[in-house]
Amino acid sequence: MTAPTTTDSAPGEAPATDDGGRRSAGRYGVLALTAAVVVGLLLGYAGGLLTPSLTRPGDSSAEAGFARDMTSHHAQAVEMGLIAFQKGSDPEVRQIGGDIATGQQGEIGTMQTWLRSWGLDPTGSEPAMAWMPDGRDSVRDGLMPGMATPPEMAQLRAAQGHDLDVLFLRMMIKHHLGGIHMIQGILDHGADDDVRKVAQTMKNTQQTDLVNLQNALKRLGG
Fold first, then answer.
1. Which end of the chain has fewer CB within 10 Å, C or N?
2. What are the b/e assignments for 68-93, b being 16+ CB within 10 Å?
3. What is the pTM of this model?
């Protein structure tokens, strides 16, 4: 009887016996990450409830603008991270993508909880980045600092293998640099200590991510 065909596996990984097995493993991995993203969002909502304020930020406050704009900024990073996790060929790239997707989804939950607790709508009447001094000048074609354009996102969705790995790393480095610029804005101009505390944690996380992203890009020859 012919033995089942096997493929080489990375250390610590179970060998795949056929394409169907690889597809099943990938499907279960996506389901696991999807569940983790949902859990992260719920934890983010819970975290937001734990940051009460004696005076609620108003609709035109820096805190409200930051929460709204950073939610949109994070949403694109979540999509990029999920693409890298699902389609990346490099294990570290997949890990980084999954970590960014789950972490930033949780932060979205926190920021949306702030807005609800302040009695504010998820979207406001102010233009993007209006809450930050000179912020409007940083908006390009309706996009906040570091955000990818629609053609760039289409290119990432269509990419495969090594090309996808390198493209994701480059785009996420740019995305994080823009995000840190926005976070620094609320640290400099925000008045709510709880918001500033969470923002500082965001900044620390993204700075650590940047080191990992840049190291991975260098390793992959990007």
1. N
2. bbbbebbebbbebbbbbbbbbebebb
3. 0.77
Give how far the C-alpha of residue 127 lies from the chain's centroid of Cα atoms, to the nearest Å. Answer: 22
**CA-wise closest residue to 153 among 135, 174, 139, 132:** 174
Question: Six-digit token pair at 211?
Answer: 């080191």
Which of 80, 166, 206, 72 is closest to 126 using CA atoms?
72
Look up residue 67 and give its amino acid: A
Q: Which amino acid is present at 163? A: D
Q: Could you give the C-alpha distances from 25 to 17, 88, 93, 110, 155, in angstroms and in order? A: 11, 14, 17, 32, 25
What is the phi/psi pair of residue 140, to 5°? -125, 120
- DSSP annotation of 140 reads B
Q: What is the pLDDT of residues 53-95, one digit of tens each?
A: 457 899 999 999 999 999 999 999 999 999 999 999 999 999 9
